[in-house]
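User: Fold this; tokens only.

Assistant: Input:
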Amino acid sequence: MMQFRRTLSVVLVLGVVGSLIYFDANRTTEPSAPTSETSTANQLQAVPIIGPESALTTSWYCPGVPANDLGITGAIVVSNPSTRIVTGTITFLSDGQAPLADALSVPALSTILINALPGIGGTFVSAMVEINGGVGSVEQRITHQGGDSVALCANAPAQDWFFADGFTGADSIEQIVLTNPYSDSTVVDISFVTLESKREPANLQGFVLLPQSVTVLSMADQGARNERVVAVSVRASSGRLIAGRSQHYLGQGRLGYTMSLGASATSDQWWFPDGEKVPGIAEQLVIFNPGDTDRTLSVLFITTGEVSSSIEPATITAPAGRVVTFDTASLPSLPDGRYGILVAVVDSPSDLEASTADQIVVEQIINRGEGSLVGTSVVLGMPTTAASTTWVAPSGTTAGLEDSIVVLNTTSDPATVSVQSVGPAGAVAISGLENIVVAQSGLTLISVPNGLPVGQLILRATTPVIVQRLLARGHDLPGRSAVMAIPVIPSPTVTP
């Protein structure tokens, strides 16, 4: 513990265009190689973004869906907010058979769900979606008996991937899912850190990922059994890849299922819109410093009122190459209620010669209790570079769920926010959600009304903000599933 001091068979159309689209899951066309056309902005991001519409091709790489359990299903969500048909290619990769690819067509102003397990074998199946043109966004959904999960999909393969949190306590299942979409092998070095030690297993150094394949690593089988924290680094010495983390929590304070994309870079700041301190909720920040330099961090809290000025930040030391945890409830000055969180590196440049490789990765874990049951959510923060005036949720959020969207204002100016639903008339503001005011350096909670068709949501703000979604876990399970929306970068100018 850290020390701190205060200071596809059938594609289901999501009810927007009223028709069905079919995908031939038996077609075995060889997939095309992933596009190399990636904007400079994309390359600098630790998280997925939506780039300029002028791009010739947009690619999305989803982290993977379990394929060896008949009780688990998955879908790839593709949204098209434009007034023209969007075409492209979808390719499925696995650890069990050759890639499976087919053409993709998304009607104007619609969102479609593609079966993520189109008869392809293996432990996990991941998907690569290539869209002709810069219009469209993609994310991944999993229906799991332990709780449904929505995961972001990457814009491009990366050389490095990081996971701050990992949990194998009570024989919980943590699997790192590595996808090589290229026609050449990728070679990686994999290490992991627990609260007590750092390990670099010899069998995971110079580890080869076969071309166009998925490789699944059980962290318990790699020597991290019954650990309360397992932070993982995946660094490619040759080639690039996609890395996801599948977690099935089975006890010791955590229950449920999550699937998430890793961080493809470190950052010196991480924002979290949805912090919460109330009875029955346990919140923890897990901070991973994969670099070679100790870092000093400040944890700041942003609330909906003026009380935040009286909350003294926590100061934390993140040792080089190690992982630390911070239970937010341990900060005496933090009152009950909702708040945003900023974790920032505060070392003075004059005192420290550290490169961008010596930054950090931070994830937030919330366990929401209901009687004897618990629902666990894990979310990777957003770096400051991801703050934007426009955010996209390809599959929307849970209609009728209280406080299903959380907006954090990262600036010292008030923001006006509009939530729009994409339908036959285009992007139209939802009644009652046209002009929501978010105070300077504050946050607001938004509930999407019942009866809204499931589909893409677009949130527009007059100042840069961070947006997170909270979704129902399904199966009458308690708690929430958590996932960020996707920022549009560069951020467009939005007028009130």
